[in-house]
Amino acid sequence: MQSSSETGLPAGWEVRRSNTKNLPYYFHPETKDSRWEPPAGTDPEALKNYMAAHHSTKGISTSNLSGTEGKIRAAHLLVKHNGSRRPASWREPKITRSLDEARDRIKGFQDQISSGASLSELATTESDCSSARKGGDLGFFGRNDMQKEFEEAAFGLQPGEISGVVQTASGLHLIQRLD
């Protein structure tokens, strides 16, 4: 069993992996409570470090995927702010940073990527989207599946290319086209 000091989760909680989605989730064996978002009282920094060490993915195999005609696959790193449509995440139950602070934060990630860091690895520990569990991978999507600004930027990229900062109602994104 994992220790609370290692995971950053409150006493009794542990990280498990879903058999159906192959994603980590949070479980309390005594109460049988399970959830995708960390429980209240979680130390976000300790959880971030634990997830990076034990639950990061280096990409998802595209074999056996069908029905992707007209679709693309992309990953992203999302930084939310207090004006985002849902100012909460797996990392922070209440996001209070301003839009300007979010912009500074995402530009810092953009600089790290320009210096050789991987968007996927940064997304695993830094993204405010639950796709962080998958290195920011959103899977395949088509036209009209995403917010307009996100979709336009993603479809405008070549495979492997990373966007500049894209602002949507969800927050600020860096997007990498995967396929």
From TrEMBL:
GO cellular component, one term: nucleus
Transmembrane residue ranges: none
Residues of the WW domain: 7-41
Domain PpiC positions: 69-179
Region (Disordered): 24-44
Reactions catalysed: [protein]-peptidylproline (omega=180) = [protein]-peptidylproline (omega=0)
GO-annotated biological processes: positive regulation of transcription initiation by RNA polymerase II
Alphabetized UniProt keyword annotations: Isomerase, Rotamase
One Gene Ontology term of the molecular function aspect: peptidyl-prolyl cis-trans isomerase activity
InterPro entries noted in UniProt: PPIase_dom_sf, PPIase_Pin1, PPIase_PpiC, WW_dom, WW_dom_sf
EC number: 5.2.1.8
Protein known as: Peptidyl-prolyl cis-trans isomerase
Organism: Aaosphaeria arxii CBS 175.79
